């Protein structure tokens, strides 16, 4: 059986997700992590090409929703700035937040892509919820010590992803 900690796809940045990627994975909507995926950890401003990429997703009618383990205080102003619906304090990888986001998107889980920078929250949770999963590389280096601690254990699953690709 497939390892639930291995993503369907690894990209450097969220804004590399385009129509080709979406159609290859049969994704109709995206659930987006905030910290280190859309912005540097804790930063109020979206990073790099996030805003034009979101406009592109809007043009091709791909709904986006934010799903974050962070607090309402952190997530709400960020989501509002981007004019997105959000679920905060999601307790990823537990399924509750993913289910709530899927209800808001009104799509079955297999048509939803989860994008995030952490294997043990975003990727594990998305896979457990029956969604497609895209791992991106963390923005910035300002993560907490706990995140850095987890990165060490994530390497194994990133290597497994590339091994599976080679074996395909
Ligand atoms: Mg994150």
From TrEMBL:
Gene3D superfamilies: HAD superfamily/HAD-like. GO terms for molecular function: phosphatidylglycerophosphatase activity. It comes from the Bacteria. Coiled coil: none annotated. One of its GO terms (cellular component) is cytoplasm. It holds the Pfam family Hydrolase_like. This is YqeG family HAD IIIA-type phosphatase.
């Amino acid at each position: 059986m497939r390892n639930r900690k291995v993503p369907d796809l690894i990209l450097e940045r969220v804004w590399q997700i385009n129509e080709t990627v979406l159609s290859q994975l049969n994704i109709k909507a995206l659930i987006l992590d905030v910290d280190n995926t859309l912005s540097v950890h804790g930063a109020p401003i979206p990073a790099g090409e996030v805003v034009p990429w979101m406009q592109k997703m809007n043009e091709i009618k791909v709904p986006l929703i934010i799903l974050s383990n962070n607090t309402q205080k952190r997530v709400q102003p960020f989501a509002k700035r981007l004019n997105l619906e959000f679920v905060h304090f999601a307790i990823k990888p537990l399924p509750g937040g993913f289910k709530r986001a899927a209800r808001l998107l009104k799509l079955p889980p297999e048509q939803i892509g989860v994008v995030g920078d952490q294997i043990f929250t975003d990727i594990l949770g998305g896979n457990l919820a029956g969604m497609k999963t895209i791992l991106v590389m963390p923005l910035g280096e300002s993560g907490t010590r706990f995140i850095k601690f987890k990165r060490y254990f994530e390497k194994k699953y990133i290597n497994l992803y590339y091994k599976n690709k080679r074996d395909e």
